[in-house]
Amino acid sequence: MTRYEQLAGMIRQQIEDDIWQVGDRLPSLRETVKSSGLSLMTVLQAYQLLESQGWVVARPQSGYYVAMRLKPFAAAKGGKGLNLSENVEISASIFDVLQACKDPQIIPFGSAFPDPSLLVEPKLSKTLASVARRFVPHSSLANLPPGNEKLRRNISRRYASYGIHVSPDEIVITAGAMESLSFSLQSVTSPGDWVVIESPAFYGALQAIERLRLKSIAIKTDPHTGIDLDSLEEIVQKYPIKACWLMSRFQNPLCSTMPTKHKQRLVEILNQNQIALVEDDVYSELYFGQEPPEPIKAWDTENNFMHCSSFSKCLAPGYRVGWVAAGKHAKKIQQLQIMSTVSASTPTQLAIADYLTQGGYDNHLRRLRRQLEQLQSQMLRAISDYFPQSVKVNSARGGYFLWLEFEPPFNANRLYKLALAKNISIAPGSMFSTSSQFDHAFRLNTSFAWNETQALAMKELGGLCHALLRECG
Ligand SMILES: Cc1ncc(COP(=O)(O)O)c(C=O)c1O
Question: Per the database entry, which stretches of residues form a coiled coil (predicted)?
Answer without folding.
Answer: 358-385
